[in-house]
Amino acid sequence: MKYADVAENVRLLLEDLPSQDEFIYELLLAYGKPKASITRLKQGTYNQSKVPGEVLWKKEVWFKVVDGDLFAAIEGLKTAKGTKTHNPQKLESLLHTFFGNACLNVDVFDKKGKRCTPREWFIAPLEVIEEAINLIITGEIINYKYEANSKLIRTKQFDAG
């Protein structure tokens, strides 16, 4: 979705504000998020927040209605556990470290012929990816490594000295 399209969608949203409960969902639609995903978020399938009135869509948005001092709420969010747990840069770094030796070596060219070499595409079996997700959730991923040749996750060997 182009910036101009998003700007127009947000302008229209602000002209006819939805209810407080619906605002976040309409805002996500204005940014071009799929309707099916928004429906799942509303139903709770994608909402990982356990706090009533909050919406936490991993790597997408953390929404919370704030009554009172907005800046105090922002400062609180900076140190909240959920902010640290769902930090996309930290997650990306973990994935690159863990699956780095399984990076797909490919070049992609845009319409103008400009080359791009994606470093976010990894080759690994689905079971390995699912196990890595569980290790990330538990925080144990730092104790393991992925071996691309054997397609196995193994415990890291640490020096005793």
Report on this structure.
It is a single chain. With about 160 residues, the protein is an alpha+beta fold. The chain folds into two domains: about 5-85, no CATH class; about 90-155, no CATH class. About 45% of the residues lie in helices and about 10% in strands. A two-stranded antiparallel ribbon has the order 1-2. A hairpin with a 3-residue loop joins strand 1 (about 55) and strand 2.
Q: What is the H/E order?
A: HHHEEHHHEEHEE
**Contiguous helical run count:** 7
Helical/strand content category: alpha+beta
Helix content: 40-55%
> Taking Cα atoms only, what radius of gyration do you get, to the nearest Å?
20 Å
Q: What is the approximate shape?
A: globular
Task: Summarize, please.
This protein is α+β, with helices and mostly antiparallel strands and 161 residues long. It contains seven helices and six strands; from the N terminus they run H-H-H-E-E-H-H-H-E-E-H-E-E. The chain has helices at residues 3-15, 23-30, 35-43, 70-79, 81-85, 88-99, 126-138, and strands at residues 54-57, 61-64, 108-109, 115-116, 144-147, 152-155.
